[in-house]
């Protein structure tokens, strides 16, 4: 039986060119060979002893496993095993997984709305996706999922766990979570929905600052960012700075990250990649022309910012184009290539590392922010009730025609600031930094015009006259 199994595998490997016959069979073996020479396989050829071990294991499983398995099933399991022993981002994509990958990059799929990976046999949340059931239920980056409904996650592959998380719209799923800082695992009941990832969102903060949020890098994200920047800056000529929010962005399409960085750069290197194959060496340059015309930029990142997010943050940081604020990023500095091996199957293989323009590899290290700001709950101290000059009856008006600032208007402005501070202190700090950068960009104060600030002749003065100015008595 073992001979038949070996024969089948040997024939397959010989046809693929991975197997060579022993030297003795070719009548070309030298009379004497060192142990190192005997044990060292030729380049590109399989070592025969290891192949014999494989065929023995294969044969035992095929004949003795408690349930019958076909050759095709065993070979597919062998492929999955090889991929699983590589880095966490390489994987074998069966028909369902291959389809899921294509759906994810297009931006619409069904489920909970989280980007996940594997860690110590459990599903680890890289980041929840904006405006999805997972985010609304309170799932956080770094959470470990240990159970889905009544099924333990331990022992499942990532694709199997993802399949359990998928389901019809409206169906509930009980997710058991282990979270750092929480003593006991806890459960969240999440109702599945159709996930339509809105990659880019914008809004205006304090009338003068553009907030641009990228949730995920999809195929069209670069074009979407460019069109929104052009539209917003065209409609709001008073914009003084941009906040680019990449927090909890798990990455996505490499070219999309290059296009996003390009929108804020006036030429220059964005990222380059290096690997074993010549084709893995690539350089990505920004085109001339900064769509923001040099406006100050603050980029927000955290430990959920991965891959393509780190490419953008690293490029803008190295090129001196933005201030990076928040906490250290995830640290995924590798590039995966999807290689179809049939019409419905593929492998996702790590083929290169990427480097920022200064030559930094952020693999397993992450992007260190220029300004460290932890996410925190901040409560402002309520000020005492005070009366201002504008509250006093009969007060003088402002000669410059500016709006008066009484206690009521100050309370309204303070309330808006406190709302942002309590809801998102990192965004609050980014906005304050942009305001400071904008102050430094202001032109030098011009001299008063038309004699402003110069007292007219014989004008009354509150200065005490000097003795020389006091006339003597007659």
Describe this protein with a few key phrases.
S41 family peptidase, serine protease, six-stranded antiparallel β-sheet, 31% helix, 474 residues, six-stranded mixed β-sheet, 2-enoyl-CoA Hydratase, Chain A, domain 1, 12 helices, Pdz3 Domain, hydrolase, alpha+beta, PDZ, 19 strands, Tail-specific_protease
Explain the overall architecture.
Among the domains are: 2-27 and 42-69, no CATH class; 108-196, Pdz3 Domain; 200-372, 2-enoyl-CoA Hydratase, Chain A, domain 1 (Alpha-Beta Complex), CATH 3.90.226.10. Helix 9 (254-264) packs parallel to helix 10. It has 474 residues and is α+β, with helices and mostly antiparallel strands. The protein has helices at 2-16, 35-39, 48-64, 71-84, 95-106, 133-137, 158-165, 221-235, 254-264, 308-318, 407-423, 425-440, and strands at residues 91-93, 108-111, 114-119, 122-128, 144-148, 151-152, 172-178, 186-191, 193-196, 200-205, 209-214, 241-245, 268-274, 282-286, 297-301, 323-326, 334-340, 346-355, 371-372. It is elongated, with a radius of gyration of 32 Å. A hairpin with a 7-residue loop joins strand 13 (268-274) and strand 14 (282-286). The strands form four sheets. Strands 3, 4, 5, 6, 7 and 8 form a six-stranded antiparallel β-sheet that branches. It has a six-stranded mixed β-sheet with strand order 10-11-12-15-16-19, with helices on both faces. Strands 1, 13, 14, 17 and 18 form a five-stranded antiparallel β-sheet that branches.
